[in-house]
Design goal:
The chain has about 290 residues and is α/β, with parallel strands linked by helices. It contains ten helices and eleven strands.
């Protein structure tokens, strides 16, 4: 079994990006800029935004966080986004989700310039992905593909089974790996809660991607020998032995599935670091293409 070390690969990607950013700065005197917009006091959102800001600083991207109270109006938020759409020193706009219930998330995402949509959530970005046009890929699915590529795992012609159909992971990773392109061209099955016996599908997977948000749901008897297993889940479970009173686990029973898998991602340290690395990559590409 080989551990798919997302932390290691993400560090390699960040080092590559830092070199490119430094080269651009030497030539132009300019750097990529990313603004993160945070609404409310969600602790998890604060942690995510902080980690993204730290990653920007590490590689020379100008990072800025705009924090607003949970009661900000939708119209005010739209005005702020529009101001950054026009701001030439910021090439990526990230609105941290979820947003308070009185704000329409779809409307907010649609208000971001497609040229600065480094999360890849804008309907135009999604549509371009589906039809195979060049676009910003959502960061977690892009990170999954990059992890497979960097470990030289064959994708073309392989049966990929995706557990979960979210707009953030399940649907986009299916569309990415389905593309008739290099580092894709897989046979893809997407499973969800109406699938019945999920193990019928998971046992067929050459590459199994679990993104359903259920702690240690995928057991060893659901996985074929030598499968590649990508665990996107991040779940807190009670752990009296931990100083925090909990531990973080994925959607896969790692201890047992790892005995059957040829490659597997750990949680934490697998897909998570790759997500941030792809956000940085998208921001750099926005800077190069559209600034």
């Amino acid at each position: 079994m080989v551990l798919l070390d997302g932390k290691k690969i993400a560090a390699e990607i960040k080092a590559e990006l830092k070199q490119k950013i430094d080269e651009q700065f030497a030539i132009t005197g300019r750097r990529p800029g990313l603004v993160a917009i945070l609404v409310g006091e969600n602790p998890a959102s604060k942690i995510y935004v902080s980690s993204k800001s730290k990653a920007c600083a590490e590689i020379g991207i100008t990072g800025k966080t705009e924090s607003f109270p949970a009661n900000i109006s939708e119209s005010e938020l739209l005005k702020i986004i529009e101001s950054y759409n026009l701001e030439k020193n910021f090439h990526g706009i990230l609105v941290q989700l979820p947003l308070p219930k009185h704000i329409n998330e779809e409307k907010i995402i649609e208000s971001i310039s497609v040229f600065k949509d480094v999360d890849g959530f804008h309907p135009s970005s999604v549509g371009n992905l589906v039809i195979g046009k060049e676009t910003f890929y959502p960061c977690t699915p892009a990170g999954i593909q990059e992890l497979l590529v960097r470990y030289k795992i064959e994708i073309a012609g392989k049966h990929v089974v995706v557990l979960g159909r979210s707009n953030i992971v399940g649907k986009p990773i299916a569309n990415i790996l389905l593309q008739k392109k290099e580092n894709a061209n897989a046979v893809v099955t997407v499973c969800h809660s109406a699938a019945g016996d999920l193990s019928y599908y998971t046992k067929q997977a050459d590459i199994l991607i679990a993104a359903i948000g259920r702690a240690e749901f995928v057991k060893a008897d659901m996985v074929r020998e030598n499968a590649v297993v990508i665990d996107v889940g991040i779940n807190r479970v009670d752990d009296p032995a931990s100083p925090k009173g909990y531990k973080v686990v994925g959607d896969v029973d790692f201890a047992n599935v790892s005995k059957k898998a040829s490659f597997i991602t750990p949680v934490p340290g697998g897909v998570g670091p790759m997500t941030i690395a792809m956000l940085l990559k998208n921001t750099f590409e926005a800077f190069i293409k559209y600034s």
